[in-house]
Every structure is written in structure tokens, then in C-alpha cells.
Write a structure and sequence with these properties.
Metal Binding Protein, Guanine Nucleotide Exchange Factor, Chain A; 4-stranded antiparallel sheet; mainly beta; 7-stranded antiparallel sheet; about 160 residues
């Protein structure tokens, strides 16, 4: 019987600011209802001080139907974000994903890629490691057991 994949220890307090963009070696998977809504081996992640990593899927690896939705936000590093509803079978996850159609030069590889809120889907995985959402209701990072340090988003940490 094979052992589950272990992720290396990472301290979120040592992640860079401005953030860094890097490819993800593991397979990412998102489940909505009882179906795979997104799965990729070609993801990127953004690492920023005190944040859980935010993972981005290429749009062709998102199997759920994507519908643009109202609302927008602006990231000082990546630019203007667009939000998406995801629908899979009879399930609809409202405002479950976001993307940067025209990101800043430093993040141009993310153009059109989608990040998915773990709070809006049934489960998310980095390899065979289950993900929990970043604390709070604003940030969309994916928390895995290998992370150490204080992940912002909870009460009193939002504007660090």
C-alpha cells in the first residue's frame, strides 16, 4: 500500500511581499456535488506573506460550467478580478471562483486562470492532501496541514 504524498513544511510568515508566482507540481482537484469540477496538473500558486497559497487552474481544466457574475475587486499586485459562478450537474456554487482577465505584468501567466474558494465547493485537494479554507470571508487561500505560521483572515488580521 502506498503512502500518501506529504507536502513540504512551509512557513507563511516567510512567503514574500510582493507575492511570488510559481508552478504547482501536485495535481489539484475540486469536487462540487459528487463530481470533479476542476482538475489539473498545470496550476500556478501565489505565495504572499501571512496568506495560505492561492491556487489557479487553467480554464480548460475547469470542468464545471462557468458563468460570469456581478462584482469585482482589485488586487494591488495582480489587478482587477472578475468573479464566476460554477455549475456542475444540479449544483451551483455562487461566486465560487475569480480570475484576472488582464493581470499585471508580474502575474501575466495567470491571465484567465481561475482560483476557487474552498468555502463554496464540497472539497479541494492538493495531491491527496485535503484543503481547508483560509480563515475569514475575504481571502481564498487553500490551507494544508504542512503550513506553519499565522495565516491571516481571522478576526483582527484582515488588514495586515
Amino acid at each position: 500500500m502506498s503512502q500518501p504524498m506529504q507536502l513540504p513544511l512551509e512557513d507563511v510568515q516567510t512567503y514574500p511581499r510582493p507575492p511570488a508566482l510559481e508552478p504547482v507540481p501536485q495535481t489539484l482537484r475540486v469536487i462540487l456535488g459528487d463530481q470533479v469540477a476542476a482538475e489539473t496538473k498545470r496550476a500556478f500558486r501565489v505565495l504572499e506573506t501571512h496568506h495560505a497559497p492561492t491556487y489557479y487552474f487553467p480554464p480548460e481544466d475547469v470542468l464545471a460550467a462557468m458563468t460570469p457574475t456581478a462584482g469585482a475587486s482589485f488586487c494591488e499586485w495582480k489587478g482587477a478580478a472578475q468573479y464566476w459562478d460554477l455549475k456542475m450537474g444540479g449544483m451551483t456554487a455562487r461566486k465560487a471562483a475569480w480570475s484576472y482577465p488582464k493581470p499585471s505584468t508580474a502575474f501575466e501567466d495567470l491571465a484567465g486562470y481561475l482560483a476557487i474558494y474552498v468555502t463554496k465547493v464540497d472539497s479541494a485537494w492538493v495531491g491527496d492532501v485535503a484543503v481547508t479554507p483560509q480563515p475569514g470571508d475575504f481571502y481564498g487561500g487553500w490551507v494544508t496541514p504542512n503550513l506553519t505560521g499565522i495565516v491571516k483572515g481571522g478576526p483582527g488580521t484582515r488588514h495586515w
